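Sample intake — Guanine nucleotide binding protein (G protein), beta polypeptide 1-like
Collected from: Monopterus albus
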Amino acid sequence: MSRPPPSPIFTLRGAGGPLNTLHFSCRGGDTPLLFSGSGKGAVHIWNLNTRRPEKIVEGHSGSSVIWVSTLQSTDTLISQGRDMQVCLWDLSEGRSEVVDSVWTGSVGFCQCSLLETSPGTFLLAFAGQQTEEIKIIELPCKISVCTLVPDAKLGMVMCIKLWQPVSGPGPLLLAGYEDGSLLLWDVSQRSKLSHAKAHPEPVMCLTWDTDRLKGVSGSSEKKLASWMMDTHKNLQLQDCVTLVNPGVSQLCIREDGKLLASAGWDHRVRVFGWKKLRPLAVLQYHTDMVLSVAFCDHQDPRQRLLAAGSKDQRISLWSLYNEGASAEPLSSGRI
């Protein structure tokens, strides 16, 4: 018999704006942290033990923060705003200083993607000033690596994912475009490897499993599209999941590869078994669009929470730990 869907174990309030982006950092000690970026330009650093903001930083002139991440440890924060700036923050020893910034020139909502290539060295990919271009630079030196522009008119870059394959030379990049296309790029060769039309509408979000070489994307329609990379580095469309209501803001795969979460325009979070895209639960709490989802990277599986940020200015935290989660549905509700 199916169990009822869970309720949030707690919620975080006081962000003061829509929650566009979330990022966990739980490996830097005993204090699990959740970083959130709001539509009012603030980055809140939440202490999940006290369930209160440990620090609030503002560096985008009140412009919406659309992406946050951390470099190696929680001492270095990186944030992206609609002011066309990516800011690097020094948070060590109680500081909250912008120590460097990158001007993107992009007025869109495409979130940056970060990849560590060696200790202390990172690649940063972001949508450029021109509609279809993606720029990649090396941090902290800010040397330009390449600019990727498709040879066909695909519209605006909507979402990107930079990743390093286990076998093979340089990094690869997945990009979703306004016309519903997915492109796979070889960063080292500055060349396109594969093109697949995943959606009739703009690709709003995508995520990628580097172990299974499988990804999933969402759009404004009632569908999640899954796809994989074959041995020849071609993108192959796979199964689709039909949703009850249209619109997906973000997708996230749990680190253990068992669960996929989606942020829905219909105020709901949906949880799937990632291996077969089997619906497991519909999480209902928010009163407006869910804009972001993130899984905790805590070493203890029982502490690996799911966070969801909404336009209603609240963050909900959910505990989905369950040894049988990949085989046993959490909810009988329609996905």
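Post-analysis note: DSSP finds no helices and 28 strands in the chain.
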